[in-house]
Amino acid sequence: MDHLSALESQSIFIIREAYKKFKKPAMLWSMGKDSCVNVWLARKAFFGKVPFPVVHIDTTFKFPEMYAYREHFAKEWGLKLIVGVNQAAKDRGVSYANNDAVTVCHEMKTVALQQMIEKEKWDGLFVGIRRDEDGTRAKEKYFSPRNIDFEWNYKDQPPELWNQFQSDYDPGTHVRIHPLLEWTEVDVWNYVKRENIPLVDLYFAKNGKRYRTLGCQPITKPVESNADTIDKVIEELKNTKISERVGRDQDHSQRYAMQKLRAKGYM
Length: 267
Known about the structure:
The chain contains 9 helices and 8 strands. Helices cover 38% and strands 10% of the residues. It is globular. A 6-stranded mixed beta sheet has the order 3-2-1-4-6-5. Strands 7-8 form a two-stranded antiparallel ribbon. It has helices at 3-21, 33-45, 64-76, 87-91, 101-120, 185-195, 230-239, 249-252, 257-263; strands at 25-28, 54-57, 81-84, 124-126, 143-146, 174-177, 209-210, 223-224.
């Protein structure tokens, strides 16, 4: 079994294991490359039909191309799409024009997700994060429990030794499941190439710039790049020394911003 096939097999095993263990699982879908690979793996795990809801926590500030992608592929892939918006925050005027990036991300992502979990009673949530993406995410486990307030205690996570995963929890526990945890950015792109997975075209260079990561349009910046094909993206990543999330303003707006956000329940 080659490297990508081994990663795929492990991820599909985790998805199936979680689907068996949790009564009401769901999968987050941001339309980014990682979450699209997650959805693709779920489709392969269950022979083309995702048996649980696919959820977009919509800040309402995403790129138009991302919304067009969502509508097209939710229909083409037969997904049970649920869109969650923190309407109360919108009504209060929470926006990038009025607030700092960390506040908007907390209100429009974390709180919106908490509202949806409380409403839908999901006990397991598939998330497309990777350890190599950010130092805080490097502390994660495949099965990561949250407390009653959906907060993440990175100092108190279950051990996962010799590929033995803790998937049995007390009733009422909310758990994040991370099928892509050991994948790298290059792994994701190689898998996208192998599987011919369609992505939002913002990932490919136009006029000397492209996006390495997709978030809210007002706070996501492109990087200098001429990589307009998958092969060129892969080659670029093998040689770059620039962080993947360098274009995400919320990561840099405060000291330890990502760790603070994630401790409160951010993806």
